[in-house]
UniProtKB/TrEMBL annotation:
<dbReference type="InterPro" id="IPR036865">
    <property type="entry name" value="CRAL-TRIO_dom_sf"/>
</dbReference>
<dbReference type="InterPro" id="IPR001251">
    <property type="entry name" value="CRAL-TRIO_dom"/>
</dbReference>
<feature type="region of interest" description="Disordered">
    <location>
        <begin position="1"/>
        <end position="30"/>
    </location>
</feature>
<dbReference type="GO" id="GO:0071944">
    <property type="term" value="C:cell periphery"/>
</dbReference>
<feature type="region of interest" description="Disordered">
    <location>
        <begin position="340"/>
        <end position="391"/>
    </location>
</feature>
<dbReference type="Pfam" id="PF03765">
    <property type="entry name" value="CRAL_TRIO_N"/>
</dbReference>
<dbReference type="InterPro" id="IPR052578">
    <property type="entry name" value="PI_Transfer_CRAL-TRIO"/>
</dbReference>
<dbReference type="GO" id="GO:0008526">
    <property type="term" value="F:phosphatidylinositol transfer activity"/>
</dbReference>
<dbReference type="Pfam" id="PF00650">
    <property type="entry name" value="CRAL_TRIO"/>
</dbReference>
<dbReference type="GO" id="GO:0008289">
    <property type="term" value="F:lipid binding"/>
</dbReference>
<dbReference type="InterPro" id="IPR011074">
    <property type="entry name" value="CRAL/TRIO_N_dom"/>
</dbReference>
<protein>
    <submittedName>
        <fullName>CRAL/TRIO domain-containing protein</fullName>
    </submittedName>
</protein>
<feature type="domain" description="CRAL-TRIO">
    <location>
        <begin position="108"/>
        <end position="261"/>
    </location>
</feature>
<dbReference type="InterPro" id="IPR036273">
    <property type="entry name" value="CRAL/TRIO_N_dom_sf"/>
</dbReference>
<feature type="compositionally biased region" description="Polar residues">
    <location>
        <begin position="357"/>
        <end position="366"/>
    </location>
</feature>
Length: 391
């Protein structure tokens, strides 16, 4: 008999790996460099979005959040407009301060998830962590804390993503839900605003199943607020076993996992797993030199080197190249000297012997030692007119 699963899976199933990103074009690399250079100059940012708000220095956790992949996500979301990307990154950092994303603790959110209405369980075929939204388990009335709950779970979902996977999968199951248990239009608009503006390029796919008529009508109401790119990632009533390995998919969704939500077991397990991953990332970030623009693959424990290591390698390669070039120049000079010496020696050996002839009397009556050099007497040389120098 298969055991009952009561805790999150810690890693994707075998062979479920992220698709490697395409390398940046020279133009995209230039855009990225512009954004990174601008953000590295930030010393302080406003504490809130209010006009003339008090400012505060960037914290270490904020600097760590500003990874290479983070900046690239904002560039892609703004269609590689570096000015807009910089503006949006700043807006998100201010929002994170104002919303207090780091202050949303497991204890504070716990009551919202007491019935398991949001469950982080398993990974899809490309290693995306799967976050189930189960409206039929709604246990609280509409309030800002419901949105805080979703933000908290988004953060935990991204915490346990495997190295190289930047996106997540939402599995929204409306089975046995009612119109009363679903969020209103105002709440839906707020959630969409947060997702599209502060978690750009994070939604890999949204798989919506058991769609009742009133949800279809609801989606028509909120449809105008959904970004066109986001719409392409939403799929309705597709067979989930084709997208998520059965070994990590709930039985009620067509998989093999007999999952039972026990808050006293699941919640501490998720909290500890996410906290461990965050602690490991912080240690790697500090060890690598606390760089803004650090590699997420490195921070998440992948096989990519840190930015600091890449810079050191580039410096080392540059030094080796300079040393190699200097050696080649030195060898060339040595060869030139050797060859020059041999040429001079050969010239000396082939030079005609000096022929001494009898003294003669010059035109002014002086006696000269008419030594013939290369077959020309000094007297004859006196008579040679030098060629004119070109202007």
């Amino acid at each position: 008999m298969a055991s009952i699963q009561k805790t999150p899976f810690e890693k994707p199933a075998e062979n479920c790996t992220p698709t490697p990103p395409n390398p940046l074009t020279p133009e995209q690399q230039t855009k990225y460099d512009q954004v990174l250079t601008a953000i590295e100059t930030w010393d302080t940012l406003p504490k809130t979005s209010a006009k003339n708000a008090e400012t505060a220095p960037l914290s270490d956790s904020e600097k760590q959040w500003l990874t290479r992949e983070c900046l690239l996500r904002y560039l892609r979301a703004t269609k590689w407009n570096s000015t807009n990307a910089i503006k949006r990154v700043q807006e998100t950092l201010v929002w994170r301060r104002e919303y207090n994303t780091e202050g949303l603790t497991a204890d504070y959110i716990s009551e919202e998830n007491a019935t398991g209405k949001q469950v982080l369980l398993g990974y899809d075929n490309e290693g995306r962590p799967c976050l189930y939204l189960l409206p039929n388990k709604q246990n609280t009335n509409t309030s800002p804390k419901q949105v805080q709950h979703l933000v908290y779970m988004l953060e935990r979902t991204l915490d346990i993503a495997p190295p190289g996977q930047e996106t997540l999968a939402l599995l929204i199951d409306f089975r046995a839900s009612s119109a009363r248990t679903n969020p209103g239009v105002a709440t839906a608009r707020e959630v969409l605003h947060i997702l599209q503006n502060h978690y750009p390029e994070r939604l890999g796919r949204a798989l919506v199943t058991h769609l009742p008529w009133y949800v279809t009508a609801f989606l028509k109401l909120v449809g105008p607020f959904i970004d066109p790119v986001t719409k392409t990632k939403i799929r309705y009533n597709e067979p989930l076993p084709q997208l998520v390995p059965a070994s990590q998919l709930m039985k009620v969704s067509g998989g093999d996992v007999d999952f039972e939500y026990d808050h006293s077991i699941y919640w501490p397990a998720l909290t500890e797993l996410a906290a461990t991953r965050r602690r490991e990332r912080k240690e790697r970030w500090e060890k690598a030199g606390k760089h803004i623009g650090e590699s997420e693959v490195y921070l998440w424990g992948g096989d990519a080197p840190s930015v600091g290591a890449q810079d050191a390698s580039a410096v080392q390669n540059g030094a080796e190249t300079s040393t190699k070039d200097a050696d080649e120049v030195a060898n060339g000079i040595a060869n030139i000297n050797v060859n020059g010496a041999e040429t001079a020696k050969a010239t000396e050996e082939t030079k005609p012997a000096t022929e001494t002839v009898q003294p003669t009397t010059s035109s002014n009556g002086a006696v000269t030692d008419a030594t013939k050099e290369n077959g020309v007497t000094q007297a004859e040389d006196d008579k040679i007119t030098p060629a004119p120098i070109a202007a």
